[in-house]
Structure formats: C-alpha cells, structure tokens
Design the sequence.
C-alpha cells in the first residue's frame, strides 16, 4: 500500500491530500497560505491532513508540490531584480518584443556576438563589454538572463557568458538555450528573464517546504508539478522555475480528469488570484504549441494550453465611474481581503473602518490597508521605496497614513511588485462574507468595507450601492460575468471552426451576450456552451452554479474540487522531453546541433542517429534524476524535404525524445 501526499500552495490557501494507491482520497485539509513564509502554510496543511487521516509522517512514500506562486508572480508583476545579457541582437528588439516592459527598469546590455542559422559565428563575442557591465551592475541584481542569437544552433557564446557571470558574481544565471530548443531569440530571452526573476522565489519555497516536511517527519523525496502536468524533482524545479508556471493549473486538470473521468469538458479552476481555463479533449489536456502564456507574457515553456485570467476570490475590486449607473470590475491584482486582514489586526482594522464610516465624505483610500511582507530579501529598490518601506514597518496600517503624496503611489506599486508589501482592500471574498455564502473570516469587517465602497458616487450623483448587501451582490455578479467571459474565450480559442474575430471580441460580442439571455424579438438568439464545465477551487461551489446557468451548460463540481491541485500533484507522471535539430548548411553536409555545439556528418541518417542518441541519453538521465521508474522512451522525427530539379533534397529535421515513467515510491 503506497500513501501519497500532495500539497498545493495557492494565493490564499495551501491544500494537502493523502491518496492511497492512486485510487482514493483518504483525507484532505487546508491552511491559509502565509506569503511571508510559505512553509508555515505548508506545515499547517500537512499536519492537519496527517492528523485527520491518522497516517504517520514516516509512512508517506511520495510527496509532491504544485504551486501557483510562479503564475501569480508573473500575473501580478512580482519577482526579483535581474539583468539581461543580450548577445548578437539589435537594441530595438528590446522594445519591439516587450523585453523592456518585462525588465521593468532592470539593467540590460546588448553585446556583439551570436551565430547564424547554421551555427557559424556571426561576430566575435564582446567579453570585455560583459565584464564592464558586470562591474557596474553585478552586485545589484539577484540573477542574470543570457540570450544569444541562434544559441539553439550553437550555444558557445551563451555558455561563455554564463561562465564569466558565475565566476565574477556567483549569482544564478538562466541561459535561453537551456530553457528551449526552439528558434525565436527574443522569445527565448523573455523566457530567460522570467526564469531568472523567479529563481529566488521558487528556491525559497521549495527549500522551506523540504525543511518543514523533514521537521514533520516526512522523509519521502519531494516532487514538483511542471506546467504540462508532469512531475520533476525539486532540484530540477529550483534550477528551471519557469517550468513551474501553470504548475497549479496543470495539476488541477490532472486532478479533474482523475476525479471525474471526463473525456471532453472545459476545466475552470478559480483560486485567490487567477481563474485558469483549459480544454480536456479525449481525456487529455492539450499542450500549447506557441508556449505558455501567463498574463501579458508569452514564453517558450511547454505547458497545458490554458487561458489564465487575473480573476479570483481575492481580486481587487475597481470602481467604474463612467456612465450614469457606475459599476465595478475585478482584477488582475490580488489583494488581501479586508475580512482576512481583520483577523490579523482586528483592533487596527475596525478602528480605522469605524472612523472612515463616521466621516461624511468618502476618502480615496477608504477600506484599504497595507503591510510589509516579513522575511523577504530587499534588493534593487530606490531611496523613495526605502523610505516608504521603513514607514510601513511591521504593522498593519491604513493606506491613507502611509501615502503622503501622489508621487509615493508609484513607489508603493514597485514595493508590491517586488513582493515586499501586500495591499488589502475589498474583494469578492469580502462580498461572499457579507452575503453569508462563506463564514471563515471577519464578516463584520467585510460589511464595513463594503459600506465604504458603496458610498462612491455614480455619474448620476447617486450612491453606487445603498447597503453592503447590495454592493456585495454587484461584486458577485461581476465575478460571475467575468468568469463566463473567461470560459467563452477559451471555448472560442479552441473551436476548430475559425472565426474572423479574436476570442476576446467574440465572447463579448453583443450577439453572444444577447443570446445568453435568450433574446427573442423578430430575431431569436440562443447561445451558450455545448460542453460541460468542471468547476474547481475552494470557492467553485459558491460561484459556479450561477455561471453554469448563465452559460446554459452542465456544471460538474467534484466532491474534492477544493483540493484538485493537490490531488493532481501526486497522480501525474514524470515526463522529460529533449528536442534537437539537424540542418544541411551545404550539399552533402548534415549538421547535428548538440548541446556542446554543432557536429557535421556526411550522411543525414548518421546525423539523425547521433542526435537521437544524445537526446535519448539526456532525457533518460533527466527522468532518472527526477525519480522516475519503469521509464518508457518514445521518439519522433519530423524530416522536411524539398523537391529540386526532380529530386528530393534534405532541408531540416527535428528530433524529439520523450522519457516517461511513474515516480519511484516506497511501499
């Protein structure tokens, strides 16, 4: 009998489950996610599930972690300060391909070097330029990203840059060719930047999780869910944290399939920060051929084809003043619900809310609080941010006391993006407490905060909502509406019949929206989803029944929907993929592009065989390092030829090797 422990660290809750022999959930538990030290939440959930099940910690045969931390960090613009070393490209690429936006003011350098499409050196690598850049910026960043032109065809310059950076700074370095074997240098650079930004955050999470598991007595090896739903070792996840983006959502799809056996359905997982929607087709989630997209970032990471929206139970509620009636919209930033922060500092929160309610004029910062996140590494912030962080100190404070000028708003935003400060304000979770849909935090604080929010004036000069309950219903209705849009966008994106408009426009189109309401005049319109939706997440049972009615579809809410991610964390497989290319730079020459550089052959078959052998060796070694047993290997070759003067000529070939097996467990 094998006992498997699955843990998921979400934006609001950390979940834990124990599964027996991959067949049944014998216990599940939740604890609040503790952003200042995630191990506290992990430890709380694991101790609770062990106590509930009666299982001894030492009897756990496998522990596995899925996390939304990387996804949430990218959606919310958080992460460490990094530097980009961009070799052989043009300066204008940085703005054209969104790299400057992703860097958020972090340092970068464009150096001579790089290779051509055949792997030949295009220009000498400017090592002195790199050394000068490191002398100026090496001590002010937490990690480096390196991307060189055509590095997947010849990684020599990237490898040299990595060696120099490590020797001079000792900081972690993300090389683009080690993260993807595909062409598109700027996109690989983006992936490397995001990987570098996440390294410190994911390293701390995994390290502390391992510490707390050992402290509890769980000695089984720790696995981590990758973005495509496969499992990797904790060491592999620390080195390539970018692969854990969409980890939590991928685990939820694996868990949804395991719980329901559904072959064809949309899976929608609502968390505290995001809503993640994907399609199950023939019982399997599709892999996004263009690379994982999270928020506004498109990466080259293999992950499930999923649309991630900044919409969750803890999404920030924004006031819309346009029009006579006004309204609200949600996200993408996550806030601490007022009802939750009131548990931490009840005296401060209620005193401030009561004082704001006594005021006859609504204040700009009513119902909003701020606190520092303890235990975070402080780096790469300016003097204005330092002053603001010192002013916040260690207490929960009303936002109006912290901000003394408008110019400090930008400094506060930067502190939030660095993960050094958390904001609290009105969220759908507060609305749910006001309506009695949930009762786990401070409902009285939620009522006061919603009363303050409802005092805002619409274009007609009227209050947005006369009572807290009215305000709550408006927020919940908006959450249901935005959830329906997220589902429709995914459905349109996956439709095999193309439409002229983008999925976002189709979901919001007046005909689509009128059809959901069953418009019937001279024209009858009926629209909706033609497949079931599997609703996952702790709050799915609260919000999703209404979404199902809105879309006219079956809404499946599994009994363990609230811990689907933790379930998916332990029922997946270890899968390692390696890919490489053979090109023909000249007639009679076949070039295998290997990790250590290109190698030429006089025969195409010999080049393909050598590349396959190397890829097979790397894939099996990676699967073994991840703890896979009974490894199976599959190989695919995509050979492209062209007809020239009546004969077929070899153009290029891509070889992909996949090594897969179940994690090795003790019994």
Sequence:
């Amino acid at each position: 009998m094998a006992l498997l422990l699955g843990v998921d660290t979400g934006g609001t809750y950390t979940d834990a489950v124990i599964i027996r022999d991959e067949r049944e959930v014998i216990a599940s538990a939740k604890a609040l996610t503790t952003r200042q030290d995630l191990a506290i939440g992990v430890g709380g959930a694991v101790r609770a599930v062990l106590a509930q099940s009666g299982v001894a910690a030492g009897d756990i045969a496998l522990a596995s972690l899925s996390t939304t931390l990387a996804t949430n960090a990218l959606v919310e613009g958080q992460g460490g300060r990094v530097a980009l070393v961009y070799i052989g490209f043009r300066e204008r690429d940085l703005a054209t391909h969104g790299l400057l936006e992703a860097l958020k003011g972090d340092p970068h350098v464009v150096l001579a070097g790089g290779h051509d499409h055949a792997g030949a050196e295009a220009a000498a690598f400017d090592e002195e330029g790199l050394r000068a850049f490191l002398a100026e910026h090496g001590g002010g960043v937490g990690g480096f990203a390196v991307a060189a032109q055509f590095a997947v065809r010849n990684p020599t310059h990237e490898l040299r840059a990595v060696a120099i950076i490590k020797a001079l700074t000792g900081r972690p370095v993300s090389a683009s060719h080690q993260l993807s074997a595909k062409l598109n240098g700027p996109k690989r650079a983006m992936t490397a930047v995001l990987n570098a930004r996440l390294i410190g955050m994911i390293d701390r999470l995994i390290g502390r999780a391992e510490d707390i598991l050992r402290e509890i007595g769980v000695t089984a090896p720790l696995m981590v869910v990758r973005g495509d739903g496969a499992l990797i070792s904790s060491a592999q996840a620390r080195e390539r944290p970018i692969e854990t983006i969409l980890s939590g959502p991928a685990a939820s799809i694996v868990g949804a399939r395991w719980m329901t056996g559904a072959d064809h359905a949309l899976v929608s997982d609502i968390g505290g920060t995001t809503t993640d929607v994907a399609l199950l087709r023939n019982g399997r989630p599709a892999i996004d051929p263009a690379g994982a997209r999270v928020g506004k970032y498109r990466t080259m990471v293999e992950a499930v084809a999923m649309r991630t929206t900044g919409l969750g139970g803890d999404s920030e509620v924004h006031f819309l003043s346009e029009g006579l009636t006004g309204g609200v919209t949600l996200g993408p930033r996550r806030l601490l619900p007022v009802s939750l922060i009131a548990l931490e500092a009840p005296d401060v929160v209620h005193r401030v809310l009561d004082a704001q309610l006594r005021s006859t004029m609504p204040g700009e910062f009513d119902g909003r609080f701020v606190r520092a996140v303890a235990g975070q590494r402080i780096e790469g912030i300016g003097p204005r941010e330092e002053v603001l962080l010192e002013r916040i100190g260690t207490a929960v404070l009303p936002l109006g006391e912290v901000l003394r000028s408008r110019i400090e708003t930008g400094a506060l935003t930067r502190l939030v993006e660095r993960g050094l400060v958390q904001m609290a304000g009105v969220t759908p979770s507060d609305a749910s407490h006001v309506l009695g849909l949930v009762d786990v935090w401070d409902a009285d604080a939620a009522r006061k905060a919603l009363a303050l929010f409802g005092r805002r004036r619409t274009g007609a000069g009227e209050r947005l909502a006369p009572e807290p309950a009215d305000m709550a219903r408006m927020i919940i209705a908006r959450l249901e509406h935005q959830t329906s849009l997220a589902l429709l966008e995914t459905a349109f994106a996956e439709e095999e019949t193309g439409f002229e408009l983008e999925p976002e426009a189709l979901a919001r189109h007046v005909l689509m929206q009128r059809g959901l309401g069953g418009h019937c005049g001279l024209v009858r319109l009926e629209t909706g989803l033609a497949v079931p939706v599997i609703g996952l997440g702790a709050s799915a049972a609260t919000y999703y029944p209404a979404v199902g009615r809105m879309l006219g579809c079956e809404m499946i809410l599994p009994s363990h929907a609230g811990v689907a991610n933790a379930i998916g964390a332990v029922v997946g497989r270890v899968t390692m993929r390696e890919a490489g290319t053979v090109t023909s730079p000249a007639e009679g020459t076949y070039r295998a592009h290997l990790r250590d550089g290109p190698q030429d052959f006089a025969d195409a078959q010999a080049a393909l065989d050598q590349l396959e052998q190397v890829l097979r060796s790397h894939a099996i070694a990676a699967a073994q390092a991840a703890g896979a047993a009974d490894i199976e290997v599959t190989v695919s070759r995509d050979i492209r030829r062209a007809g020239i003067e009546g004969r077929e000529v070899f153009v290029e070939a891509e070889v992909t090797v996949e090594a897969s097996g179940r994690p090795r467990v003790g019994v």
